[in-house]
Specification:
Elements: H1 2-9, H2 15-30, E1 36-38, H3 41-50, E2 58-60, H4 68-71, H5 75-86, E3 94-99, H6 107-119, E4 125-130, H7 134-143, E5 150-154, H8 158-167, E6 170-173, H9 182-189, E7 194-197, E8 212-215, H10 221-232, H11 234-249, H12 253-274
Parallel strand pairs: 1-2, 3-4, 3-6, 4-5, 6-7, 7-8
Helix pairs in contact: 5-8, 6-10, 9-11
């Protein structure tokens, strides 16, 4: 919590923040924990920076995804219906961005990068789903001359978001910080390659150029635009889409549960040996 406030929110610690950090510290050092679970290597590294504990006590288990939410639907049918609903033709590449905090998730740099492609007469549509400062980003879209290519949907229910994944071609999120980023794995479950920043914990699952791309410098708009251009090409995108879905298949909730079960088994076995 202390790291989040100081380094991500960049604010002074309030009384609430100090109390929360104090409770967290007590739990870590005095909670008699046998194992700590981090949702990503990024999270594990930060946790070990904040607390002086043995690294072997920290296991990494990524969150999972429910594949059935995606495979039970007819992707072609959903793709046509969502595109028709949003006024998108059948051939323009559709980029999906979904977030409840546009600033932290890097929408500014995404739009600035897309402006580079627009200047090259490249075709695309960006769906911005979720809650954020729509007025600010509508203004930015106008300033960067991509307003006709950006669709703000506002907050959407999970069922509708799944349909948007299925209607899209790839996913992008250039977060300043994300402990994991469930949307990344959800996008992969829909067969979408991803472009994410190096500050997203889900980068553990991204193989550069195989199922997506990792952007370490989110201010390099020309570099980001080049990666977006690659995924706008269907022939380049298709093999990455297949690998993205394979990645999701290896990270289902059943597999996550099995890993937790094994950790509990090990802890209990150790307790029994002590007895």
């Amino acid at each position: 919590h202390r790291y989040w406030v100081r380094h991500i929110r960049r604010k002074q610690m309030s009384l609430y923040d100090m109390a929360t950090a104090w409770v967290e510290k007590k739990l870590v050092y005095e909670g008699n924990c046998k194992k700590f679970i981090a949702v990503s290597s990024l999270t594990k590294d930060i946790f070990l920076q904040e607390y002086s504990i043995a690294p072997e006590l920290v296991e990494i288990i990524h969150p999972g995804v429910e594949l059935n939410d995606f495979v039970k639907q007819d992707k072609t049918s959903v793709r046509h219906s969502i595109r028709r609903e949003l006024g998108i033709n059948s051939v323009d590449p559709v980029i999906l961005f979904a977030s409840m905090n546009f600033e932290i998730k890097g929408l500014d740099n995404i739009m600035l990068s897309l402006a580079r492609l627009k200047a090259q007469n490249r075709r695309f549509k960006l769906i911005v789903a979720g809650k954020g400062n729509i007025k600010k980003y509508t203004r930015l879209a106008q300033e960067t001359k991509i307003i006709e290519d950006v669709i703000f949907t506002g907050p959407v229910r999970k069922e509708k978001l799944i349909k948007m994944y299925l209607a899209g071609d790839f996913y992008i999120m250039l977060s300043k910080f994300d402990t994991f980023g469930m949307v990344v794995l959800e996008a992969m479950a829909a067969g979408l390659p991803v472009i994410i920043s190096g500050n997203v914990g889900a980068k553990d699952l991204v193989q550069e150029g195989t199922n997506g791309f990792i952007i370490n410098d989110t201010t390099d708009n020309d570099y980001i635009a080049a990666k977006i251009a690659l995924l706008c090409d269907e022939n380049m995108r298709r093999p990455l889409a297949e690998k993205a879905y394979e990645t999701a298949m290896q990270n289902t909730w059943d597999q996550v549960a099995a890993r937790y079960k094994e950790i509990y088994r090990q802890v209990l076995a150790g307790e029994n040996q002590k007895k």
